[in-house]
Amino acid sequence: MRHDEKRGLFVKRIALVIAATILCSSVPAIAQVLNPAMSAQAKKKKIYRGSMVTYENVFSAYSLSEGAQQSYDPYYAMSLTFLPQIWLRDDMFVQARLGAEVELTLSESTDTKREPVLTDLSFTYMWTGAYTIPGAKIVISPNARMRFPTSKVSQARSMLFSIASGFSLTRSFKLHSGKFFNNLILNYGFRVEKPFNEYTTRQVDVACGNINRPECLHSGSRNINWRFSNAFTLRTNAHAKVILTLQVGLINDLLYEGGEMDKVLADGSVISIPATTNNHNALVQAAFDVTVPVAKWLYLSGGLMSFHNQLNPDSTRQFPLLNRDMMFYVDATLPIAPLVELFGG
């Protein structure tokens, strides 16, 4: 994986106000289950209820200690994400998502200092509460999504577009009538995604002189052929004004097969590289979020997140969330419908 791609993946979060639709979240009414800013609007009849804008600050755990790396490489970025949402009827909506990010520390993935970088543009269809399993009270909600390559990462993968489909299972529990920890929401989401790419390997930013040599155009790192994502989410109200959410996502990628090839070295000699036998890559996403509804039109969130391979370089398993890839974030979310009402709309 290229270093600039690794940076881009770090800051793509799923669910919560955590850029919910990019990786593996397929929650029913993403807004209502994982995003309290939407939950407060669920019964209102404005066609654009659930639309929001999120401003986020993210910095790496590495940034706190200069001795954590051989070469100190702090990371701090800000992003702005737009999530317009239109309800087709009371239980169906479509949502678009597009964000822009700026790294304030020394970037290794942009051509200029503090260059804005777009996320992918996605469109999601959600049917909330399509069916409830009798007796078990488990709510099933299907969804579908299309994603387009407006990000540098997807462009490096020569992605044309991707399509995805999934569902979620949600069970809500009323624990007691008190003020603290009075409810619990459990959610499981599954999504399968098929990216369509022009090439099976990722492209380099700047081609070298001889364009007839494959290594001058492609990095050799293989693209994703299929992605299967599972997300497990727990949410509770620690208090009426404090919402806690914990999520773990397991992501399995099937890569394009890598065939045997000859590589030309700088001295003109040729070596043979055998075909790749392992086409599987496993990733883990985790997040712990604390959200405080300051007002109907403003929600503040903060927490921890990580996105990394399941295995460390020495093949030991990496613990989710609390690990060397951990990030800290602080969000401010503005739900559009209450904001319009505030100004008399």
What does this structure look like?
The protein has 345 residues and is mainly β. Helices cover 8% and strands 50% of the residues. The protein has helices at residues 3-10, 30-34, 36-39, 152-156, 336-342; strands at 52-60, 76-83, 85-89, 92-103, 117-118, 121-127, 131-133, 138-148, 159-174, 183-197, 201-203, 218-222, 224-239, 242-255, 261-264, 270-273, 280-295, 298-309, 327-335. The protein has a 12-stranded antiparallel beta barrel with strand order 1-2-4-6-8-9-10-13-14-17-18-19. It has a two-stranded antiparallel sheet with strand order 11-12. β3 and β4 (92-103) form a beta hairpin. The N and C termini lie far apart (48 Å). 35% of the residues are buried.
Short summary of the structure?
The protein has 345 residues and is mainly beta.
Q: Assign an overall shape.
A: globular
Q: What is the tally of helical segments? A: 5
Domain count: 1
Compute the average pLDDT: 80
Low-confidence parts lasting 5 or more residues at pLDDT below 50? Answer: 1-43
Structural class per helix/strand content? mainly beta
**Known CATH architecture:** Beta Barrel
For the secondary structure, the number of strands is: 19
Biggest pleated sheet: 12 strands, antiparallel, barrel
CATH topology: Porin
Fraction of residues in helix: under 10%
Beta-sheet strand percentage? over 45%
CATH class, named Mainly Beta
Radius of gyration: 21 Å
- Quaternary organisation: single chain
Question: What is the straight-line distance between the termini?
Answer: 48 Å
Q: What is the H-and-E element order?
A: HHHEEEEEEEEHEEEEEEEEEEEH
The CATH homology group name: monomeric porin ompg
Biggest sheet strand order reads 1-2-4-6-8-9-10-13-14-17-18-19
